[in-house]
Description:
The complex is a heterodimer of chains A (157) and B (125). Chain A is of the alpha+beta class. Helix content of chain A is 43%, strand content 27%. In chain A, helix 1 (5-26) crosses helix 3 (82-104). The radius of gyration of chain A is 15 Å and the shape is globular. Chain B has six helices and five strands. Chain B is globular, with a radius of gyration of 13 Å. Chain B has a five-stranded parallel β-sheet, with helices on both faces. Chain A binds chain B through residues 22, 26, 75-77, 79-80, 84, 87-88, 91-92, 94-95, 98-99, 102-103, 105-106, 117, 119, and chain B through 9-13, 15-16, 19, 55, 57, 81-85, 102-104, 106.
Amino acid sequence: xxxxxxxxxxxxxxxxxxxxxxxxxxxxxxxxxxxxxxxxxxxxxxxxxxxxxxxxxxxxxxxxxxxxxxxxxxxxxxxxxxxxxxxxxxxxxxxxxxxxxxxxxxxxxxxxxxxxxxxxxxxxxxxxxxxxxxxxxxxxxxxxxxxxxxxxxxxxx
Amino acid sequence: xxxxxxxxxxxxxxxxxxxxxxxxxxxxxxxxxxxxxxxxxxxxxxxxxxxxxxxxxxxxxxxxxxxxxxxxxxxxxxxxxxxxxxxxxxxxxxxxxxxxxxxxxxxxxxxxxxxxxxxxxxxxx
Lengths: 157, 125
């Protein structure tokens, strides 16, 4: 089953709203700009998650190094063991996409509110690019005072 | 102050919850990565409180809650969810969970839910 652009835009709006709340209220950052971008390339700290039931959507999010450093420090406030650091760096984008997309579901168009959110997918950059190439996508960039976050919603028309 | 078992498949949540709970003066006696570990660690540590993630691979939080409550009817469990999925939360409450926290976890949310479940802690202050 496919989904039309009007509903994709509503889903994007809900994700944008939750990202705004997360970045401003929870992480105390300022959002300078949110803009539509033509291309999404996961290259720094990225995570991917799938929503499915009648339709299937893949959402991928990339956080640049500068913003990631701020988010990492906000999450752990410097209270981490050196042995944990590598695992925490790898896991934080998964946790952020899980939180944001999970909370965004309540703002989706009514008929898509029962979409099931899976666990974050362990995909490499080339695997995400392959999914992007085979499907349609819509991408946004959020510019903050501490760095940038880009994300893409990938769907079949 | 409470002895607490933290259950979550995400290391991010295990570590942030532990940090926040310890800053509040509680003791995190163990951190479990799955429902199976939660059941095992509960028996080993007999904590005052369990914070239980709902969505986890192998055994999810609701299955673990049911097993713990069946064996230890006085167990106090609060659920941790990122989904805002009322059905799962309601399922957990009907199976004996005392409350829930919606991620992202903040000090305020933690304080509120603990005060609700253990009002005597607030009264002691």
